[in-house]
User: Fold this.
Amino acid sequence: MVLLVEDDPSVREGLGLALRRQGHDVRAAGTGEEGVEKLRESRPDIVVLDIMLPGIDGFETCRRMRTQAEVPIIMLTARGDDFDVVAGLEAGADDYVVKPVEPRVLEARIRAVLRRTVSEPSSVERHGSLVIDRAGLQVLKDEAKVGLTPTELKLLLELSRTPGRVLTRQQILEAVWEHDYLGDSRLVDACVQRLRAKIEDVPSEPRYVHTVRGFGYRFGPR
Amino acid sequence: MRSVLRGLRPRLMAAFLLLTLLGAVAAAGASYATARNLLLEDAQDGFMNPLVEDVRNYAPRLTVPPAQQDIDEFASYLRGAATVISGELRSRTGPDLGIVPADMRESLKSSKTVIWQRRTDRPEPYVVIGIPLVHADGNTTGVEVWAVSSLGAPQRAIDSFSTAAWVGVSLVLPLALGLALFTARGVLRPVRRLGAAARALGSGRLDTRVDVRGSDELSDLARTFNQAAEQLEATQAASRRFVADVSHELRTPLTAMSAVTAVLDEDADTLPPDTAVAARLVSTETRKLTRLVNDLMEISRFDEGGNLLELDEWDISTAVRDSLAARGWTSSVDATLPDGVMGRVDRRRLDVIVANLVGNALKHGGAPVRLVVRPGVIEVSDHGPGIPPDALPHIFDRFYKADTARSRSEGSGLGLAIAWENARLHGGTIEAANAPSGGAVFTLRLPW
Assistant:
């Protein structure tokens, strides 16, 4: 089920129609407050959130939603400004699309985010104090469960699949976000930041997810 | 002469020199003439006045007509060397009368006053003085006193004076020349600055301003220039703002329209033929409009300076390889991607540049399209017909189409302009040229 938060009635109707045609169950909200309310009631699989909203804006709405659920959020940026994108990713958005968006692009992003991480019949891996359970799709740190959004979990599973090997941002974008063209590497950077905040002891001195300047990221406890 | 004096500087210098020369010569000449007269008169009077006095004092004692002895006594009485004559008699002392011009001798015969003449027919100038001896009743006695005095000393004083005047003039001339240069610089520097600023403004840098110094006419001109530039910038900003606003306003309806194009496409087959054509047309054009508005927004952000550069150290060959692969161009582009070319670039913007350059080459150029990565340079070349020479300067202009016959291209017409803006944001350039062997060559240079 998709929760669409958009103030313009025509866009709401148009996007709603397109999403329904793709087989999604769609709930729509006209304001940020209504969106947060509907999120609580209906527990959607994904949120499509406009940034330009009357009342509380998309960034604030995104932050409030993040405190409630680890639901994937795709931002609709009206301007596509760098500022909007960075602020949106910092507020916790998983991905973003720029208006006017072609429906197949939005659909592809939604599918990519929604595609459930398939549990693998592999054994439980231990990396330092981090336990990654690929079958149970959960991550424990110091024996406590870490609450990861689906995107963060996918990123961690992807990185930890080949410890010690460097993955480029583009490789990560293709694997995690399934972008079939050159995506925005800031998505990866923002998601890595959020992931580090959850799994690293000191996020500024990461033990698990290392930055390899000029190339990308490498997983490996040191 | 005309061409030499065309510049302001030579004209100013010539005017200054001429003025100084005229002034100096006039001043020196006037004072020279005055001083010369004064000096000569002084010397002459100093010689002549005592002589005249002596003659006057002695006159009553002289018997007229005098004998030879009377004349000799008279001559020896006189201060300075003088010759006394009376009829055929001549004093034994005194200068030779051959020096006295005949016309003076003649005119003294009938004169009752002193006559004199300054002469320069000898190396040193001299004065010849003739004094007639006059009776108490005023009649001439026929006795004449002649004297000659050199004016060498005053002449030497005058000469040294004139030398000093010329030295003065020649010293003032370089000073005048320096002053002329200084003045010329004072005028020309602001003029040159204004010229450079006007050229910059003309080439599109509308934020060009000149420093306004002082309150003379030139700084007024500078102020006027700045106001004009401000006006121009404001006008341009307003028109760009308008484009940005229009694009922005188009976004929301376009988002709604764009959202339902897929529905139109899918159901077109089941619609009556005319309606199906209409539906497909609307959906196709909506997509094109979407691309156009997206590109317009992109270029508007450059105009507003709202684009940030996110520099990071990247492996350029990897970045380019990813850009090509992401668009499925790996097999259609002959790419030379050496290892180890690192650069500080905004990866996303580099991708936009590469995509637009390669996309342009694939669309308008001929295969094979070649891409070469070198340190600091990415070169994209094709083997098509190349760019017409008259189109080269405009190839990065917005909505410029080299081929006017092509009514509407598939792209927005902003691709190369966007690539160029992205390069500029990096502090780099893109050059378009034609290869000697044919085909267009686009060279991206980034200071990485």
In short: The interface with chain A takes residues 248, 250-263, 266, 287, 290, 293-294, 297-298, 301, 306-308, 310, 312-315, 318, 322-323, 326-327, 342, 347-348, 351, 355 of chain B (CB under 8 Å). The radius of gyration of chain B is 51 Å. The first helix of chain B runs from residue 8 to 58. Chain B has a mean pLDDT of 85.
